[in-house]
Amino acid sequence: MATEFHNLQELHHSASLATKVFIQRDYSEGTICKFQTKFPAELDSRIERALFEITVKTLNDYYAEAEKIGGQSYLEGCLACATAYVIFLCMETRYEKVLKKISKYIQDQNEKIYAPRGLLITDPIERGMRVIEISVFEDRGSSASSSGSSSTSSSSSGR
Amino acid sequence: MSAVMVSRKVTRKWEKLPGKNTFCCDGRVMMARQKGVFYLTLFLIIGTCALFFAFECPYLAVHLSPAVPMFAAVLFLFVVAMLLRTSFSDPGVLPRALPEEATFIEMEIEAANGSVPAGQRPPPRIRNVQINSQIVKLKYCYTCKIFRPPRASHCSICDNCVERFDHHCPWVGNCVGKRNYRYFYLFTLSLSLLTIYIFAFDIVHVVMRSVDSGFVSTLKESPGTYPFDVVICFFTLWSVVGLTGFHTYLISLNQTTNEDIKGSWSGKNRLQNPYSHKNIMRNCCEVLCGPAYPRVSTVKGRSPIAKENGPTPKSKSINPTETISNSKEQDPTPKEKASALKERVSCSKEKRQSSKEQGPPPKEKASAPPLASPDDLTDTFLEKERVH
After folding, report:
1. Which family does it belong to (chain B) (predicted)?
2. Which residues are B21's β-sheet partners?
3. Smallest CA–CA separation between B100 and chain A, in Å?
């Protein structure tokens, strides 16, 4: 690999943003939240395909669990309706609980797998659940060669 | 001097949200700008029920049963709760694409279209996806700079893309979409029941009183009620009951008003609704008893333009450009570096804590707001220049 970082701390010490890769939604099963597992070419030299696919598949499983329509969602819906949805002011919904799990999982993945490879995953909820944004960082020493191609890194270096 | 140390007013994400919405209660309440018809709806419901409770309920409670006004009260509270829930909820607004995402999509479109000869219009921006063996076209939204998900549509009144867009309802002063459709349906259903109930007991009251003291004297005794209550109920009955029936039909087919009006799944060109489960009960259950979707449009936290004094519980930015660039430009001391990376690594933990501290609703998380226009982008650059 071109650049290696041992952890998230080192990433922040010596990295500059080179580019961002966006993993799009997979609508083949309807409007449920699911992301494409197609491996983007920009990450070819940065991370193993298998690791990336595991991350995306796990996220897809979490979202499927959150959006599952079954006994628990019916119970939650009926109980909430009976209380005129006032109960949602006090209680956390199942979806929100799963979103917290997802957030923790993404942070865990960032710390263990992605940051050492100079990558950072942004939680999809922060992008309207439309994309998984993966920021690709370059070592600052080599950023001069890549800054010309990326408007974000040139604007940030111009600040 | 580090820019991170400059203290400024904390700007909430929803304050920077493009689109024509108004917000209340620190972003928890989200409505369209035109609220006049919503106030009329509230006035009509509260006014009619107030007259019913004041003039007819005392007589009915004594001569019929105290359960009559009690049930009316419960129904009235449910109707108002559903109305407020529909009007104040985020209908499922999609945030606009940030500049990097917009550029990425543009590059994909250009790659797909190839080179367009000069003078020719480029082909329309459409992406085809296959959903349950049906080809669905995703249109590109030039305002939000995204390819709209299936069933999403751009509301011109609110100037937002809304997921599972049904329609914009002026009576509730908001769009009806994925997140608030079931509240809207329950509002129309309960309002129909309330209207039928009040209309029925208006008639019962007149009949019972006329038996006692004659029809003309009955009308004289409660002059305000009858023209107002009965007329309102009569007209409301036909419109609201009709609307409830229409939405019951849509729910059983798992269609939206928008799709019905456009005739998307009318059967022309062999187009079948790919979202329907072909089972009325399953369709109803999915729409009415599905999960409570989270809000994705706005999240409490720091805007990338406003800079505050270090990490605070309410303000956690997860914008990597912002954080990384800050620590780069000012050539930070080791202490500042250590604090920057502590902030970064622990930010999501604090985010979870801060959402608990702030209490309801826990739906909101930190994010960077989308930049609406080139003007906003210029503002960002000017801010950056000033700091430097």
Report:
1. Belongs to the DHHC palmitoyltransferase family. ERF2/ZDHHC9 subfamily.
2. B32
3. 7
